[in-house]
Amino acid sequence: MIIHTENLKKEYEVGTQTVRALRGINLSVEKGEFMAIMGPSGSGKTTLMNIIGCLDTPTCGSYELNGTSVSSLEDDELANIRNKEIGFVFQSFNLLAKNSTLDNVMLPLKYAGFNKKEAVIKAKEVIEKVGLIDRLDHTPAELSGGQQQRVAIARALAMRPKVMLLDEITSALDPEVVGEVLNVIRSLNKEHNLTMIMVTHQMGFAREISDRVCFFNEGKIFEQGPPEQLFGDPQNERTKQFLHAVLDAN
Ligand code: ADP
Ligand code: MG
After folding, report:
1. What is the distance in A from the centroid of ligand 2 to the CA of 217?
2. How many C-beta neighbours within 10 Å does residue 194 have?
3. What is the pLDDT of residues 45-66, one digit of tens each?
4. Which atom of ligand 1 has the smallest separation from the CA of 22?
5. Is the CB of residue 2 less than 8 Å from the CB of residue 196?
6. CA-proximal residue: ligand 1, atom 22 (nearest)
7. Measuring CA to CA, how many Å separate 149 from each of 30, 155, 171, 195, 239?
8. Which atom of ligand 1 is nearest to the CA of 12?
């Protein structure tokens, strides 16, 4: 088990109001598993990803990442484990605008203390994997949206993480480049035994590639199962409604 959470909760105090973003998440993910997370906006998907990715801490509950109890770690230890174990890709690419593809991908390696020569070699390896070896010197503005997102994927891979977290990585892309980004994810998943958790509205892709789909609603996992079961025979009325809405939008 690479990820294990018990009764994970996250609450935000906003003025006099308490927002209960996560209401008790029990989740176990196996090494090498591809898990898709679906669910309506505001249901807590990003909040969970941020906690799993050690960018945020839960209000209560426990979280173990690769055998380490993360909920008890201090900030610098959290940063350390995040850099070593986690590759995070967001909806927005968050690339440095003035830096080339190579420099953007080298950033986490430099930060981790690799010398320049080692960092260049390691960065080029992952840039090759996302199919951009002929775009090493391009800045983000000189790349398409799909290519920029592939640079972000390469950057997330640079430290050879054990877990990849992908939060709506195709949502900001033009429809015609969604496929190239999903193809990169597909080939990474096939070739490496990388654990992947992906928040997505791409039902077809989730059906084809994921081992398990989790349906989120109101800060809880409402329903989960293999894609053929969750898409083919959802047990819960709310899941059905949501899936129909996604189908209609596609
Ligand atoms: P999703 O990714 O499923 O759209 P989020 O995890 O982003 O949902 O948000 C879950 C809930 O938590 C929402 O109601 C959102 O408004 C609230 N929320 C998220 N982040 C914060 C924050 N920093 N402060 C206050 N409320 C937040
Ligand atoms: Mg979100």
Report:
1. 12
2. 20
3. 999 999 999 999 999 999 999 9
4. 10
5. no
6. 12
7. 26, 10, 11, 19, 30
8. 25
Q: Which of 219, 154, 183, 199 is nearest to 49 (CA)?
A: 199
Q: Look-up: residue for tokens 């799909």?
A: 146
The structure tokens listed for 248 are 């209609």
Q: Kindly report, residue by residue over 161-188, the tens digit of the pLDDT.
A: 999 999 999 999 999 999 999 999 999 9
CA angle, corner 92, sides to 36 and 5, nearest 5?
A: 40
Answer for the pair 78, 25: CB distance below 8 angstroms, yes or no: no
Q: Is the pLDDT of residue 250 over 90?
A: no
The answer to whether the CB of 170 is under 6 A from ligand 1 is: no
Structure tokens at 141: 């503005």
Q: Is 44 in contact with 216 (CB distance < 8 Å)?
A: yes
**80: enclosing H helix or E strand:** helix 75-85
Structure tokens at 240: 């059905």
14 Cβ inside 6 Å of ligand 1:
yes
Q: What is the pTM of this model?
A: 0.95
- The encoded tokens of residue 209 equal 């590639």
Pocket of ligand 1 contains residue 43 by CB under 6 Å: yes
